[in-house]
Design goal:
Elements (H helix, E strand, L loop, with lengths): L2 H16 L21 H5 L27 H4 L8 E7 L2 H12 L6 H12 L7 E4 L4 H7 L3 H13 L8 E3 L11 H8 L3 E3 L8 E8 L3 H12 L5 E8 L4
Parallel strand pairs: 1-6, 2-5, 5-6
Antiparallel strand pairs: 3-4
Helix pairs in contact: 5-7
The structure holds zinc ion (2 copies).
C-alpha cells in the first residue's frame, strides 16, 4: 500500500465499524443475515464451485454430473505439488467484479468480505503452520502499490491465528501476463521467477492467491517451496477460472 492508502485504511475500517454497513459491491445496507459482508443479492451472484470439478486443482468440468477424477494437467503431474485447491467460487459474476475492483481499482476495503468468503471454505480444514501469499515482483508492486494476495493473507492469518510469512518466498523476475500463452510458454515464462531466501522445515503451508487460472504460477511457487523443505501445501484462492 502507498502512504495515502496506509493512512486512510484505518479510517475506512473505523467508518465501516461506526456506520451502518453497506454492501461493498452495490452499497445496499446489509442485514444481520449477510454474514460474509456482501448483501443477499450480490451473494447469490457469486457462482459456487460446481461438484463436477478436478478433485486436485478444482478445475470445473463442462458437465453437471459429479465425477471424482483428475484433469489432464493433474494427471500429467508426476508428483502432486499441493494437496488441494480451496476456492470461494468460480471467476464469474459478482465475484469477478469484486476481484476486479479489489485488484485494479484500489477498493482495498473489499479485503474483509473477500477474506470471509475464503474463510468459510476453510472451515473444517486443519489450520496450516504458515500462511504465504504469492508475491508480486517489486516493479509490479510499485505500479499497483499493494499486493492483493498479501492483504487477504493477513486477514486469514488473523482469523486462523497463524503467522503470515512475507519476505521468504520472493519473486525476482518480472513475468509476462500468462493469458494467451500455451503451457510450454507459461512454464518458460515462470522458470526461476521465484526463490526462497531461506529453507523451510516441513511446515504445512497455506499459499494464498487471488485467482487460479492456469495454475502455472502457484505450481511454480509450490515447486520452489517443496524443493526447499515445505510440508503439505494447500492453495487458497478467491476464484477458480472455468478453463485454462
Ligand atoms: Zn450487494
Ligand atoms: Zn486438476
Amino acid at each position: 500500500m502507498n502512504l495515502r492508502q496506509k493512512l486512510l485504511k484505518p479510517l475506512y475500517d473505523l467508518l465501516d465499524f461506526m456506520l451502518p454497513a453497506g454492501c461493498p459491491l452495490c452499497s445496499r445496507l446489509l442485514s444481520p443475515g449477510d454474514a460474509t459482508g456482501f448483501c443477499c443479492s450480490c451473494q447469490q451472484q457469486i457462482p459456487p464451485l460446481p461438484v463436477a470439478a478436478c478433485r486436485h486443482c478444482a478445475l470445473p468440468y463442462p458437465t453437471d454430473i459429479a465425477d471424482d477424477h483428475l484433469c489432464v494437467t493433474c494427471l500429467n503431474e508426476k508428483k502432486p505439488l499441493f494437496e488441494r485447491v480451496i476456492a470461494a467460487g468460480i471467476y464469474d459474476g459478482a465475484l469477478k467484479e469484486a476481484i476486479h475492483r479489489f485488484k485494479y481499482r484500489d477498493k482495498i476495503n473489499l479485503d474483509r468480505p473477500l477474506a470471509e468468503l475464503i474463510l468459510s471454505e476453510l472451515k473444517g480444514i486443519e489450520p496450516p503452520d504458515l500462511i504465504i501469499p504469492v508475491p508480486l515482483h517489486p516493479r509490479r508492486l510499485r505500479q499497483r502499490t499493494y499486493n492483493q494476495s498479501e492483504l487477504l493473507a493477513h486477514l486469514l492469518g488473523k482469523k486462523l491465528n497463524r503467522p503470515v510469512i512475507l519476505k521468504q518466498l520472493i519473486r525476482h523476475r518480472h513475468t509476462l501476463p500468462q493469458q494467451g500463452q500455451n503451457a510450454a510458454d507459461r512454464k518458460k515464462n515462470l522458470h526461476d521467477a521465484f526463490s526462497l531466501t531461506h529453507p523451510l522445515h516441513g511446515e504445512a503451508i497455506l499459499l494464498v492467491d487471488d485467482v487460479l487460472t492456469t495454475g502455472a504460477t502457484v505450481r511454480e511457487c509450490c515447486r520452489v517451496l517443496k524443493k526447499d523443505g515445505a510440508g503439505l501445501i494447500t492453495i487458497a484462492v478467491l476464484a477458480r477460472a472455468r478453463s485454462h
